[in-house]
Amino acid sequence: MKRIVVALGGNAIQAGDNSAAAQEKQVEKTIKVVAKMIEKGDQVAIVHGNGPQVGNLLLQQYKGSSKDNSAMPLDTVVAMTQGSIGYWMQKALDDQFKHTDYPHQAVALITQIIVDANDPAFKNSTKPIGPFYTFNEMQKQKIYHPEYSYKQDAGRGYRQVVSSPKPVKIINAPVIDTLLKSKFVPIAAGGGGIPVVIKDNNLQGVAGVIDKDFSAAKLAEDIQADELVILTTVDNAYVNYNQPDQAPIGKVKVDQLKKYLEAGQFAAGSIKPKIEAVINFVEKTGNTAIITSLRNASKLDDGVGTIVYN
């Protein structure tokens, strides 16, 4: 039996439209694949992204804001998406398990993560959230939302960007450890977790969205996971991506992967955070990390994906 932290991107939840029904149906498809990992007998904790969802919810909050019913701050919006996506995943897992002899129950946990109040990320917005825009659409959005920042996202269009501090400590890690030992499936650090700082000996939420891959790596480290699995839209990470000599990265030592990273092989805002996250986990624990597609989740023992080892 292995202890595994699985990270799912926000796009594993996002559907063709932004309705709750469409996203919930997409979650059901995703969870059917992840459930196969759990049914093998491994302890699995699930971390999910929320980039599309938190951006859309921010827009809803802004449009519905009034003097008597003001928009919620970003840390609370992160918590709101943790709750909604966690609910969809918990229900989908429980529905899946009732059709098997597997005795596990899912638990969606609102997770707070301590970040450094002096993290330079607070002065440089880089984390893309919400929908993609063309250049002209982005210019219109800037008129409606002059306080928002937008950047090109991996050649796919423009998206709003927010601060993305690094996780320092996952407050709820002991609870997640206990849940795994008790045969529960925790859905934790959703959307990268709610970023908080310690001020006057109290926790205080801050505006930002932690990258879920960094939070997944930190959680995997804190609960002593045997493996970190990041499920995304591609089967492998690649060198020379979208070039004539593009090549998939299979089994690779962490030192070699760092050389690729330093050579600028990985696009910021796309695969780069995943690469940095697996490097952090493998270097700090000596254990293995895998980057691959959701469709490969049931074939991890067959050596699929980009496998990073010490």
From TrEMBL:
One GO term of the biological process aspect:
L-arginine deiminase pathway
- Keyword check for Glycosyltransferase: no
Q: Which GO terms describe its cellular component?
A: cytosol
Entry's family note: Belongs to the carbamate kinase family.
Tell me which CDD domains the record gives. Answer: AAK_CK (cd04235)
Its domain of life reads Bacteria
- Residues crossing the lipid bilayer are none
Which SUPFAM superfamilies is this protein grouped with?
A: Carbamate kinase-like
Keywords of this entry: Arginine metabolism, Kinase, Transferase
Keyword Transferase recorded: yes
Under catalytic activity, the entry for this protein gives: hydrogencarbonate + NH4(+) + ATP = carbamoyl phosphate + ADP + H2O + H(+)
| GO molecular function annotation | carbamate kinase activity
Q: Please state what the protein is called.
A: Carbamate kinase
Pathway noted in the entry: Metabolic intermediate metabolism; carbamoyl phosphate degradation; CO(2) and NH(3) from carbamoyl phosphate: step 1/1
Instruction: Say which species the protein is native to.
Output: Lactobacillus gallinarum
Q: Which Pfam families match?
A: AA_kinase
Q: Per the database record, which ranges form the Aspartate/glutamate/uridylate kinase domain?
A: 2-292
